[in-house]
Amino acid sequence: MSFTVYYDDGALFRDADGEPGQAPAWGVQAVCQDDGDDRVVVAGDDFYFYDPTQKRWFGVDLIGLVDVLVHGGFLKVGRFIAHSRYAEILSQATAEAEGTLTWVRDESTGEWLAAR
Asked: Quick one: pLDDT at residue 105?
C-alpha cells in the first residue's frame, strides 16, 4: 500500500521510508494513500492511525482515539499550524492524490523533493 504522511514542518514519511508504525508520531497534517484504484487524502483531524487489518490510514477525533487505544493500530498526532501553512500542505497532498505531483528522493540528503 502506497502512502505519504505530511508533517507540519514540511517533512514527509512515505511507504519507501518504512512501515506505518515507524512514521514519526507528532505533527501530522495529512495522509495521501491508495484507496482501490484511486488515491485519497485524509486531513483535518486531531489524530491519525493506521489500521493494519484494513491496511489504510484513518483520521479520527477524541472518540476515535479511544477506539484506537482499545482496539489497536499505529497512532499519530496532528497539531494546529497557521492556516496558510496548512493550505500549502493540503494542496501538495491533493496534487499527489490527483497525480499532478510526485516525490523523488534526493539520494545525497535523503529528503523527498517535489517533481511536477
From this structure: 87
User: In terms of residues, how long is the chain?
Assistant: 116
* Domain ranges (residues) in the chain: 3-115
Set of cell numbers at residue 63: 472518540
Q: Which of 25, 70, 27 is nearest to 49 (CA)?
A: 25
Q: How is residue 50 written as a grid cell?
A: 493506521
Per-residue pLDDT reduced to its tens digit, 47-87:
999 999 999 999 999 888 898 889 888 899 999 999 999 99
DSSP string, 26-61: EEEEEEEEEETTEEEEEES-SEEEEETTTTEEEEE-
